[in-house]
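In the design runs reported in the main text, the only information available to the sequence generator was the tokenized backbone. The following block is the verbatim input for one such run; it is reproduced so that readers can re-run the procedure and compare outputs position by position.
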């Protein structure tokens, strides 16, 4: 069994394990693929995000300060390193708005990031920021890694 086959088998077993544990939510961070939007645990992306800016308001009753926060997350695609800009508005630790701006340089990655940006609101708005970790949105699985990185940066800024 070659390395690629082992990785595919491991990814399949991981997806099966998570789907059983989370009643149908699966992960696949090995390739961009078409699938419905789901939220589940994913592996960390390969590089650290950079905070672009943040404007936090007075502390709410939650763990995080209310406000709008921005960060850039990055991930490695088959076409190389890509970035995605994320803006999240928090109120009482709940995401009330999200905007994702594609920053990819490869046309294929731009397509996936655009699909991700169009579908992310349905997955995270109305949920507590500590309860989200996106695995796949609108067919894009790798973009999720950059999004999750940006969310971690936002959480540290809003704390």
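Verbatim output:
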């Amino acid at each position: 069994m070659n390395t690629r086959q082992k990785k595919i088998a491991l990814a399949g077993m991981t997806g099966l394990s998570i789907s059983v544990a989370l009643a149908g939510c699966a992960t696949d961070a090995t390739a961009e693929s078409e699938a419905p939007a789901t939220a589940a645990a994913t592996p960390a992306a390969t590089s650290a995000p950079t905070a672009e800016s943040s404007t936090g308001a007075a502390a709410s009753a939650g763990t995080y300060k209310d406000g709008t926060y921005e960060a850039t997350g990055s991930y490695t695609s088959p076409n190389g390193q890509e970035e995605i800009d994320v803006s999240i508005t928090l109120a009482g630790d709940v995401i009330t708005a999200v905007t994702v701006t594609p920053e990819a340089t490869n046309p294929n990655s731009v397509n996936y990031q655009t699909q991700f940006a169009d579908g992310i609101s349905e997955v995270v708005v109305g949920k507590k920021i500590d309860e989200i970790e996106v695995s796949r949105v609108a067919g894009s699985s790798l973009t999720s890694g950059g999004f999750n990185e940006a969310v971690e940066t936002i959480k540290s800024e809003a704390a």
